[in-house]
Structures are given as C-alpha cells and as structure tokens.
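ok so for the tutorial part 2 we go from a plain amino acid sequence to predicted structure tokens. step 1 is just haveing the sequence, like this:
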Amino acid sequence: MTQHFSVMIPGSNTHDGTVNVIAPYDGALIATVDTADAPAVEKAIDNAHKLYRNRDAWLKPSQRIEILRKAIEIMTARAEELAKEAAREGGKPLMDSRAEVSRAIEGIQCCIETLRTDAGKVTPMNLNAASEGKLAFNRKEPIGVVVAVSAFNHPLNLIIHQVGPAIATGCPVIVKPSKDTPLSCFRFINILYEAGLPREWCQTLLTKNQALATQLVTDQRVSFFSFIGSANVGWTLRSQLSPGTRCSLEHGGVAPVIVAADANVEQTIPLLTKGGMYHAGQVCVSVQRVFVHESIVEELSNKLADSVKHLKVGDPTLPDTEVGPLIRNSEVDRIDEWVHEATNAGATLLTGGKRISDSCYECTVLLNPPSDTKVSQREIFGPVICVYAYSEIDDAIERANALPYSFQAAVFTCDIDTAMRTYSRLDASAIMINEHTAFRVDWMPFAGLKQSGLGVGGIPYTMHDMQIEKLMILRSKELETGEI
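step 2 — the prediction. this is what the tokens look like for a chain of 484 residues:
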C-alpha cells in the first residue's frame, strides 16, 4: 500500500499539492508527499523563529541528550526497516544501506558525545593594567534558526549530519530533503518526535518550485544555512542569503587518485572498485580520476576492469546486489553520452559502456580519456572510473590539481617520501594513503575546497558552526590579586 506523508509544520493546514516518490530501480510508486505552499513556508519559519526568541522555551542540554538517546534506541530497534526503505527509495544496495543506518546511529551518538564535552573557555585577564580585576569566560549558545537542504544519495545519514547537530546544539531546524528521497528524512523526524522532541523544534517540508525553497533559505530570520547538493544551486542560494546568515556548502568533487609505481596492485584494486562503484558512483568523493604510473598502468587497469565487471548490478533491495540504479533514468542517458563522447575522442573502453536497463548502467572503466572530455573535467556521479598513465609523479600531481574542484584525494604507495610529497602538494582537504577517496568517519572534518564547497562538515564541526561563543567580562575588586 502506498504511504502518504503530510506537511510536517505544526499549525499549518494548507499545502501545494503532492509529489510522487518513485523507486529508482523499477519506477514503482512508493509514497505521495504533500508539498508546502507559501503560507506553510512562512508558518514554518515563524514557528522556528518564535521558539528561538523565547529563551524560556529552550531545551536544556540534558533534555536534548535524553531525546537523542531515545532516538538511538528507536533507530536501533528499527534498523532493518530503515535500511530496506532507504534502499528502496534511493537505490543504494541493501548491504550499503544497512551500513548507512549503522553510521546514522553512530552519528547521533557522536552528537551526544560532542555536546557532553564541548565546553567554553577562560580568556586570560590580569595581564596588563586594563585587564586587572577582571575575569573573562565564554559559553556556547545556539546560533538561531537552521535551514537544512539535503541531497538524495545518503537519504538518512545526510539528514543526521544536518539535523542531529541542530537538535544537539538547541537550534530550531527546518529541513528540506531531496524530492527523490524524502522518506528516510520523514521517518527520522517522526522518530525524534516519538523520542520526545516538541514538533516545532524540527519541521520538514518539500516545495514544488525553486522560488519557495529560495523564500525559505533567504529569509532574514534564518541564522544558519546548511546545504548538501548541486554546486550551481548551492552557490546561487549562498549569493542570496540575508546579511548575517552563516552557511556551509557541500558539493561534489572529481576525486583524484595517484597510484605510484611501487603500489601494491592486489591491495589497491578492491579499494578502487569500492570507492568508484559504491552507490553506483553517486558519492561526492567517489573515485573518478586514477593516475597510474606507466610501468603498472596496463596491469592495474585490466585488473580493475575485471574487478568491476564481476559486480552484481540490479535490484537494491536484494541482499547480494552490489551496485544499484542511478537515481533517475535521465542520469543513465547522461552517463552514456559522456562515456561515448570519451570513446569517440580516443579513450579505450576496458569494460562496461552500456546501459543495462532504463535505470542501471554497466560498471565502466575508461583508459586515457582526453583531458578535455566531460569524464575528465566534471563530476561523473555514476559508475565510471577513468585511468590515466603518467611517467613522473609531479606530472600526476599537476594533472590531479588541474580542475576547479577540491575535496578528498588518495595516494597508493609503499614509500613514505612519495606519500609525504603527494600529501603536501595535492589540492584536497584530506589525503588518503592506501585508502580510497570515499573513506569517511563522521567525526572527522569533511570539507570541499575551491568550487567543491564552503565550511567544514563532520558532526563536531557542524555543531561548532551552529553555535556562538558568548563572552562574559566580570569586574571585581576580589580579582585584583592576579590569581585568576
């Protein structure tokens, strides 16, 4: 039976029609969702702003911790259901969706741990005549109303990364999930309500048009804007924010990997396979451009092609599926066009290069696509890995740095000097040594540079951004001894 989800805005009884949520693998209708109209968007902002302005209504840290603990208990009990539903709506294979749910639960625990240990500090005084007799310290307070706009590719965990820190820091939050995958978000918000969170503290909605989404994001009552998704949309919205609204943007990369001549090929292949084909390549730090020393490029590229060729592609809800569908059929068309552009320009197709169905594309490896083709210039966001031969390590570094995107990168080598040289010279916020570019744990910094983003993700870093540090200066004659 098809589920229906109403607008989750307390006090709002209007909507702007419905959208259908479709399973990307087979096009089946999963659910219908009411969309917010202009009055509903205004009501959501008004609810959140009034709640923030009423300091007597703020949730104490102990209350926030208890709500998050209960949410963990509920999510743990429903983990398999959450994983199956996430796989169905987003197309990520069940084995990986199970890992996503596990990460989401750990993410909430990380929010609790950060909140318990995230203290203020004392600023030294009595250091000169002006500071004599004074004590200075700060504590952290919520920044204000948070608006979070999220992407489709991790339908539960991305919401955890945006909503979890907001709840933990005491910020009222309004979240707009992807139209393609809103259901995991709605289920998590309902779990928060079940855990005791008053509904005004976390509201969620979809909009049918960009104008209403822009109205939500750019309202002057919004203090922090968290965006995960398309660079074009993110940078455009950032340019329209009200004065004073802080933001973080997380866009895509065209992740480079350098494989040195001394790399262990047998250990490298499964890591490149996973990093490039995880969620059919629909990951912002997915392995895409692999620069391999000419002495081993033939061996590595052939073994990589053989590895990805044997991955099982198909229904994401089956337990043995390793690669699922693209999120939309139009993405299959786009990827096929890009691959054919590359092969027509001279790239060698080692494996793949064809659609399997309307929703699935073969896992593909291209050798030496020209530098001016789309697969070499832009984020593929599909199951395609490009391999390039190089002769000198500095040439590989220069080619890796040639694009206006910078996120995570990887280097495979057994030599410490090569590791250190590439680490210090690659444009990236994180360099993985003998690990693929898509590695992440949720307490580490996660930051797109250049056109790949703004600010630093990762739960503790997001919690920092969602708070202000308020300083108190206390003057007292009893402090003139200089002991404090």
